[in-house]
């Protein structure tokens, strides 16, 4: 009996160890995930919403419309692009404006009607209007009196 | 090389203008220091200034003595009937001043605004007009 119990316990060891390993993996995954969200949050976004639509505004001075790539899947909006601030040949005294590529995925509070998404770029501000998908809209339920 | 570089948030963050202690602004709107590149070619100095949200008519460029001051006003165009649910940046005017060297041809400074970027071209004064003959 006792020996059998020992056996049983012994057999559980590998399982326990893999549990610990899994826990450690989970921890490091969470940690790396947190790091990833802190780092490349460019460009900064503002999100506006009401019951029927959402508006996302992004400051992108000096970015041409051709450099932007906007896509929507379900409730996730992705904005990718490139910002070139290199001038002609000359000597730079100051370089503060950032240049390079950027990509940003934004989770919206609802599913979006992909066909009706509208994006405008005015004075360096990108304004994306995303209507809520019909299927996702709340429906009024009539209560029948019996 | 620049193509592969990914823009980080910290280097792009907006920086607010500090007023001297005890001094307040009359307007309540925020003021930011716009990010600026300055480069020099053989015949001009070029200032490129990021001012997202500033329309053509809302820029003031003044040259007083040696100080070139720039002010850009941002129209408040937040979407109507929408509530702000998530915010990462704030909207405000831009202002910044630079000292200009005497080399600049003050009469021919050109300013253009495109896609929220103000470009100032400051042509250098032709060198012959500056040369002073030294007599014995």
What does this structure look like?
The complex is a heterodimer of chains A (146) and B (136). Chain A is 25% helix and 35% strand. Chain A has 146 residues and is α+β, with helices and mostly antiparallel strands. The longest helix of chain A is centred in the first third of the chain and has 37 residues, at 2-38. Chain A is flat. Chain B is mostly beta strands and 136 residues long. Chain B contains one helix and ten strands, in the order αββββββββββ. Chain B starts with 8 loop residues before the first helix and ends in a 13-residue tail after the last strand. Chains A and B meet through strand 1, strand 2, strand 5 and strand 6 of A and helix 1, strand 3, strand 4 and strand 7 of B.
Write a brief caption for the model.
The complex is a heterodimer of chains A (146) and B (136). Chain A has one helix and eight strands. Chain A has one helix at 2-38, and strands at residues 45-49, 53-59, 68-73, 76-83, 91-95, 100-107, 118-122, 125-131.
Largest interface pair:
A-B, 50 and 42 residues
E-strand count of chain B: 10
Kindly name the structural category of chain B: mainly beta
Radius of gyration of chain A, taken over Cα atoms and rounded to an integer in Å? 26 Å
User: What is the succession of H and E elements of chain A?
Assistant: HEEEEEEEE
- Mean pLDDT score of chain B: 86
Uncertain parts of chain A: 33-39
Largest sheet of chain B: 5 strands, mixed
Q: How much helical structure, as a percent, in the residues of chain A?
A: 25-40%
> Mind telling me the C-alpha Rg of chain B?
19 Å
What's the arrangement of strands in the largest beta sheet of chain A? Answer: 1-2-8-7
Largest sheet descriptor of chain A? 4 strands, antiparallel
Q: How much strand of chain B? A: over 45%
In total, the number of strands of chain A is 8
Count of discrete alpha- or pi-helical segments spanning 4 or more residues of chain A: 1
Oligomer: heterodimer
Low-confidence runs of at least 5 consecutive residues of chain B: none
Round the mean pLDDT of chain A to the nearest integer and report it: 81
Secondary structure class of chain A reads alpha+beta
